[in-house]
């Protein structure tokens, strides 16, 4: 359990470091993440629509 806390702390420190030292790149990473989540949600919606329509 202690290693998870250390890993989380290191991850948070890294994210803060990237945001502080290069905010433009950090914004690009956030945009890429949101685009990925949006694309995944769209794909799930398309699949559910296909299922509801009987797989046609």
UniProtKB/TrEMBL annotation:
This is Secreted protein. It comes from the Bacteria. The lineage of its organism: Bacteria, Bacillati, Actinomycetota, Actinomycetes, Kitasatosporales.
């Amino acid at each position: 359990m202690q290693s998870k806390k250390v890993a989380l702390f290191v991850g948070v420190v890294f994210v803060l470091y990237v945001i502080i030292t290069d905010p433009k790149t950090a914004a690009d990473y956030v945009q890429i993440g949101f685009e990925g989540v949006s694309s995944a949600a769209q794909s799930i919606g398309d699949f559910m629509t296909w299922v509801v329509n009987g797989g046609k």
